[in-house]
Amino acid sequence: MVGSKDTGDAGAGLHTAPIVPVILSGGAGSRLWPVSRGSFPKQFWPLLSDRTLLQETALRGQGQGLANPIVICNGEHRFIIAEQLRDAGVQDARIVLEPAGRNSAPAITAAAFIVAEQNPDAVLWVMAADAAIEDVPKLQVALEHAVLAARKGYVVTFGMTPTRPETGYGYIAQGGSIDGLPGVYEVSRFVEKPDRDKAAAFLAQGGYLWNSGMFVVRAATFLAEIKRYEPALYTYVQEAVEKRKTDMDFERLDPESFCKSPDISVDYAVAERTDMAAVVPGNFGWSDVGSWDTLWDLGKKDAQGNVLHGNVVVHDVSQSYVRTDGMLAAVLGVDNLIVVATQDAILVASKDRAQDVKTLVQTLKNNNRPEVDMHRLTYRPWGHYEALTEGHRFQVKKIVVKPGEKLSLQKHYHRAEHWVVVEGTALVTREDEQVIVRENESIYLPLGSLHRLENPGRIPVTLIEVQSGPYLDEDDIVRVEDMYSRTV
């Protein structure tokens, strides 16, 4: 047994201070391409249930003793996050927008400063938006142990008991138990993602845990450790928080200050340097859902060991993961494969090479392939649009506008548009006139004309948009007025 550490009296309300879930929603999840992409990454997909990973994470952060969550995210994803939280019944979440991705340490520091404004003794429960937990009651028990340690000044992480020689996770070497804190242990060291031989040795030796990336720590403790080890980060993020602005229901960190912060993970900034590191071992079925072979591990398998999603037909196939978002995927006479089909891309890979999908995505990026970041279906705060077909000087899209929403007042310098309403009723502004366009009616918007579409009804408006002109990219748009405060 090793003696427990304590930072002393941290305030009269230390042991009753709230626990604040902090959800980090960043990254593109490139190992789950072609489903996960920059514009709509893996945390926004229902990969394991009828809820998205973000929704499952947020719902785990609901309950007695837990405060309203804080979500730290990319500004481009703010409306997706707000809608998904609303659909899941998660109320009063604070959505904080990063002007640029600066890794996990600046994001957590921003959350700590915001929480400390109300109560520096509050305990942050930091978790990624894209992880899966199979046994939530066991997680809650582990959280109770972690909170007790955090209130004594520890920076606590959860270490998962390994079940295989995984090379996609970092590891934690578990140290001795801590007096007065049941279920909590010191951290001997953190280990980078190992190769397969080293991972197998860790599994055989025992005493090594997967690093879950979840942290439990008092706001004041975390800020003190950041100030100690990364003073520049502390200063710039503090400025970014102090200068933040409210935008609708969102909080925007100051871009100039935040972008000066070092780009560094919480592991490198604090966890691997602090002398207050502690770990709570757990076996509650955690996974970072980081690759297709992980989804095969977690999925419900048929008699041949296959995990099948969507419009799939297989024959003489075993130990494979096959997923399609629409088109028929017919697979014959193979085993140990990953086959994933979306509307505009197909991935075929050996299940043993699932970690290397990230390398393939980098190759696509080097070749300037738009499929790296964009789906054919693109979400907007007012609804979504889907690219149907395109050719020389024309493009056709399907647009869906939610009730009560409206597009920006805009114009284009290089294209004209023709809108055909196929469902619902649209109110269209065209220059100085307003026109009601009903089902099976259409309206023409000449090049350069100022226009807007809104849905005044109670059902979605669906229309077919035909664009024509010499340049049809999305950056040919001049927004004159926008209820969502977008500039591009």
Automatic annotation (TrEMBL):
The keyword tRNA processing does not apply. GO terms for biological process: GDP-mannose biosynthetic process; polysaccharide biosynthetic process. SUPFAM superfamilies: Nucleotide-diphospho-sugar transferases, RmlC-like cupins. Residues 21-304 form the Nucleotidyl transferase domain. It catalyses: alpha-D-mannose 1-phosphate + GTP + H(+) = GDP-alpha-D-mannose + diphosphate. It comes from the Bacteria. Residues 310-364 form the MannoseP isomerase/GMP-like beta-helix domain. The keyword Nucleotidyltransferase applies. Its EC number is 2.7.7.13. Residues 367-482 form the Mannose-6-phosphate isomerase type II C-terminal domain. Keywords: GTP-binding, Isomerase, Nucleotide-binding, Nucleotidyltransferase, Transferase. One of its GO terms (molecular function) is mannose-1-phosphate guanylyltransferase (GTP) activity. Belongs to the mannose-6-phosphate isomerase type 2 family. This is mannose-1-phosphate guanylyltransferase. It comes from Acetobacter syzygii.
